[in-house]
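Translate sequence into structure tokens.
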Amino acid sequence: MNWKDIQVSDDNTHFINDGKPIFAKIFIEVLKFHSPGLAPVKDNSGAYHIDTNGHELYSNRYSRTFGFYCNRASVIDDNRWFHINEKGSKVYSVSYLWTGNYQENICPVRNADNHYFHIDLNGNRIYKENYVYAGDYKDGIACVKSQDGFCRHIDKNGNFINDKSFLDLGIFHKNFATAKDKNGWFHIDKKGNEVYKNRYLTIEPFYNGFALVTTFESEKIIINEKGLKTLTV
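Result follows.
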């Protein structure tokens, strides 16, 4: 059975395929299968991972388990967060107050001082800076928020990709990112330059050349990549 065909039941207690349960067992909670075909589950013994045959991967039990990304899964053990491999072994020595999921072999974490930063697959920091918040990497770029309250984009070495800072910031999607300054939301290019002069109450990323935005008058409109209004919705 291809793990991609396995679905989670509506009540999140078991797995189904073609509308039928694939295991006899009912769990307290399950999450969907991820590559290479492993899923987080929880029963009365605790949280762990299973394969597509329903077999547990290891004997350890955790407070909570999450999906595998880049062959690493985030788990909680008595309020200590860290990552394990497919054998259930901890992949680095330290623990955190929170761990994200690995994306592009890099993961954001929050330490005991509530500092955010990124680690590699072996748990090593990829830069020395601490942040108020750090997000996932996408196409080699992540959003971070510094102690000064401003948000910036960094590359995989932790370097700023430009000299621009913003009150809020989104990831790049098809060469554009959402950004906010004191006047409102807008879109920027990878140099941090505004794509247009207008500012909005809320905006979405560009979707095949167009984006849904909300004006300060609560009007929802569609704009193109030059910031020109296309229609009202």
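Note: The chain has a mean pLDDT of 97.
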